[in-house]
Amino acid sequence: MSKTHLSDTSFSDFKLPETLMQGIHDTGFEQCTPIQAATLPLTLAGKDIAGQAQTGTGKTAAFLITMMARLLDRPASSQRRPNQPRGFILAPTRELAIQIHQDALALGRHTGLRLGVVYGGTGYESQGQMLSEGIDILIATPGRVIDYFKQHLFDLKQVEVAVMDEADRMFDLGFIKDIRYLLRRMPPPEQRLTLLFSATLSMRVTELAYEHMNNAELIRIAPDKAAADNVCQTVYYTSNEEKIPLLIGLLQHMDPHRTIIFVNTKGAGRRVCAWLQGNDFNAGILSGDVAQNKRMKLLLDFQKGQLAILVATDVAARGLHIPDVSHVINFDLPQDSEDYIHRIGRTARAGASGDAISFACEEYAFSLPDIEQQLGHKIESRAVTAELLASPKPPAAEEKSSLPRKHNAGNRPRHRNQQRRHSTKKTSS
Question: For the chain, which end, N or C, has fewer CB atoms within 10 Å of the first or last residue's CB respectively?
Answer without folding.
Answer: N
